[in-house]
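// run 5 | inverse folding | seed 20
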C-alpha cells in the first residue's frame, strides 16, 4: 500500500548491493539494434487542468472553495519535460492569497499515490470505512468531511512521480531518473516551485505534510527547499514518522547485533495486546501502562538484550515472563525467539489461538490467518479492510466531481518502484551518497538549523506496527540540534494506527491539532 514491506526492501537493498558492469562496446561494424530502433520515442507532455467549485462544512463552519485537478510538468536540466505530476488543489474562496497558508500533502510508499490523506484525512470529501473491521463492499459512502483542513489552509494533494495520474515522458528512462530518495525530493521541490509561480503563492505561509515514507521525503525536501531553493517553510508536519529506516522492526535481522528496534517497538506490542485483551492483568488505563513499558524497554530489557549469549538462563526466563505480562505472547515462544520478536512474528502470533492475524498498519484490526503454520503474518488485515473503499471512492470522486481523468488509469502505486527504487542518500555535508537504509535525521536537523524559525509537528498512533510511536519519539529526541531549537518541536499521540484518521475520534483530534499548529505558526493567526 503506502508503507514498506519486508520483501520489497530486501529486494531493493539487494539491488543496491549488486555490482554494476559496463556493457561491452559494440564492434565498429555492428548493426543497430532493431529492438532499440523500435522503442517508442518520449511523449511530449502537456499540462492539463480542470476547475470546479464546491463547499464543505468543517466543524460547523461553511467554506466555499475552488478545486483544481491538474498536472504540472517537471523539466530536466535542458528544459525538456520529463514527468507530469498530478495534483488536486483546494483554494478557499474570498481569502487573501498572500496571507492564506498553503499546505503540500503527500503519502509515502515510496511510490504511493496520495489517495489516503486526500479521501481519509483532509480533503473536502471523506470515504466512510468501519473503525477496526473489514468495510463492507461497494457501494461505499462518500460524505462531507467535517475535519477537512480547509478551515486552516489551502491544500495541495500531490501524487508521486509515476503514481496516480502522474506519468513519465519516457516510460523506460523516467523511473530510473525519479525513483530514489534524492531524485524524488528534487521532483517535489521542482513541483512546489512551479506551483508557487503558477498560483502566485510565493508569499503565502508554507507547510509540508507527509505520511509514512512521506515523512522521510519531508526531511530531505525541507532541507533542500530552504538551503538550495531559498524557500523557507513555516512548518513541517509529520504523520507516522520514519527518519531512520534501519530502526524499523520489520528488518532487524538485516542488522544483527543492534537491538534498539526491539526496544522501541515494545510499547506498540503492549498497546496492541492491551487492545485485544491478551494480558492476564490488563491495566485499566493505556497511557500509564505504556509509560511503564517504555521504562522497562530502555532499562531491564535493554540490559538483557545487550548481554547477548552471556545472559544467564534464569535471567532470560525472568525477562521472558515480564515480556509475556506486557505483550501477551507465550513465555516459551518469547524464549525460543531469544527475547527478540519482529513485527511479522508478533502480528501472526498474538491472536493465533483464535485463528486471527493482527494488523500491521493498524493493530486494532484483525483478519483470518492465511496459514497457521507460517512464522510471520502473510498479509495486513488493515490494508485488506479499507483499501477498496479508498480506491473506489477516489476513482468515482475525481471523475464525477473534479471532472478529471475520465479516460486515464489511476495508479495506486507507481509501477516499477521496486526493485528499482534507489535507497542511497547523500546526507547534508556528506561527500557522496551512502547505499542501504537511508537515515534522514541529519536532513531534518539541518533544515531546522538553517531556518531556526521552522516548526516541526510529530503525530503518531499507538497501534502503528509499521512506524512505531516510540521509535518516532526516539528519533525526534536524537535530532542533532541545539537545545534552543527543541521548543520548535511538538508531538501528539492518538489511539489509532498508522493512518490515524481511520479512527473518527483520532481524525478530529488530528485536525484540531494540525489546524492549531498552522494558526500559531503562520505569522498571521486564525483566518
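// decoded
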Amino acid at each position: 500500500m503506502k508503507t514498506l514491506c519486508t520483501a520489497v526492501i530486501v529486494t531493493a537493498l539487494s539491488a543496491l548491493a549488486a555490482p554494476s558492469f559496463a556493457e561491452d562496446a559494440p564492434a565498429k561494424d555492428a548493426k543497430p539494434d532493431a529492438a532499440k530502433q523500435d522503442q517508442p520515442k518520449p511523449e511530449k507532455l502537456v499540462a492539463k487542468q480542470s476547475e470546479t467549485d464546491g463547499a464543505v462544512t468543517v466543524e460547523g463552519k461553511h467554506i466555499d472553495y475552488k478545486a483544481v485537478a491538474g498536472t504540472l510538468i517537471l523539466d530536466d536540466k535542458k528544459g525538456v519535460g520529463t514527468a507530469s505530476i498530478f495534483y488536486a488543489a483546494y483554494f478557499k474562496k474570498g481569502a487573501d492569497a498572500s496571507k492564506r497558508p498553503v499546505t503540500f500533502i503527500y503519502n509515502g510508499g515510496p511510490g504511493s499515490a496520495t489517495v489516503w490523506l486526500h479521501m481519509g484525512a483532509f480533503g473536502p470529501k471523506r470515504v466512510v470505512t468501519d473503525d477496526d473491521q473489514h468495510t463492507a463492499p461497494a457501494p461505499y459512502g462518500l460524505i462531507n468531511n467535517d475535519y477537512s483542513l480547509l478551515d486552516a489552509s489551502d491544500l495541495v494533494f500531490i501524487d508521486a512521480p509515476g503514481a496516480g495520474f502522474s506519468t513519465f515522458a519516457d516510460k523506460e528512462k523516467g523511473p530510473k531518473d525519479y525513483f530514489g530518495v534524492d531524485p524524488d525530493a528534487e521532483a517535489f521541490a521542482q513541483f512546489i516551485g512551479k506551483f508557487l509561480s503558477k498560483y502566485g503563492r510565493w508569499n503565502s505561509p508554507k507547510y509540508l505534510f507527509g505520511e509514512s515514507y512521506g515523512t522521510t521525503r519531508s526531511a530531505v525536501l525541507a532541507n533542500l527547499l530552504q538551503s538550495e531553493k531559498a524557500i523557507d517553510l513555516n512548518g513541517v508536519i509529520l504523520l507516522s514518522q520514519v527518519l531512520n529506516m534501519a530502526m524499523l522492526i520489520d528488518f532487524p535481522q538485516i542488522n544483527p547485533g543492534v537491538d534498539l528496534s526491539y526496544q522501541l517497538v515494545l510499547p506498540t506490542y503492549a498497546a496492541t495486546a492491551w487492545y485485544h485483551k491478551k494480558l492476564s492483568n490488563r491495566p485499566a488505563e493505556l497511557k500509564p501502562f505504556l509509560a511503564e513499558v517504555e521504562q522497562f524497554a530502555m532499562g531491564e530489557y535493554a540490559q538483557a538484550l545487550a548481554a547477548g549469549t552471556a545472559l544467564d538462563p534464569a535471567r532470560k526466563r525472568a525477562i521472558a515472563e515480564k515480556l509475556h505480562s506486557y505483550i501477551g505472547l507465550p513465555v516459551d515462544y518469547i524464549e525460543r525467539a531469544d527475547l527478540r520478536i519482529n513485527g511479522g512474528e508478533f502480528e501472526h502470533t498474538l491472536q493465533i489461538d483464535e485463528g486471527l492475524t493482527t494488523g500491521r498498519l493498524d493493530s486494532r484490526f484483525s483478519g483470518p490467518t492465511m496459514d497457521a503454520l507460517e512464522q510471520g503474518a502473510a498479509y495486513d488485515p488493515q490494508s485488506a479492510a479499507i483499501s477498496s473503499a479508498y480506491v473506489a471512492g477516489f476513482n468515482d470522486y475525481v471523475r464525477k466531481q473534479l471532472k478529471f481523468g475520465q479516460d486515464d488509469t489511476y495508479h495506486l502505486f507507481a509501477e516499477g518502484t521496486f526493485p528499482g527504487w534507489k535507497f542511497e542518500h547523500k546526507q547534508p555535508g556528506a561527500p557522496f551518497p551512502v547505499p542501504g537504509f537511508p537515515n534522514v535525521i541529519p536532513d531534518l536537523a539541518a533544515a531546522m538549523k538553517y531556518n531556526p524559525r521552522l516548526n516541526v509537528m510529530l503525530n503518531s498512533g499507538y497501534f502503528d506496527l509499521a512506524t512505531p510511536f516510540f521509535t518516532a519519539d526516539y528519533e525526534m529526541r536524537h535530532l542533532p540540534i541545539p537545545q534552543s531549537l527543541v521548543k520548535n518541536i511538538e508531538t501528539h499521540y492518538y489511539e489509532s494506527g498508522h493512518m490515524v484518521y481511520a479512527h473518527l475520534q483520532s481524525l478530529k483530534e488530528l485536525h484540531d491539532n494540525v489546524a492549531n499548529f498552522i494558526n500559531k505558526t503562520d505569522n498571521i493567526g486564525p483566518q
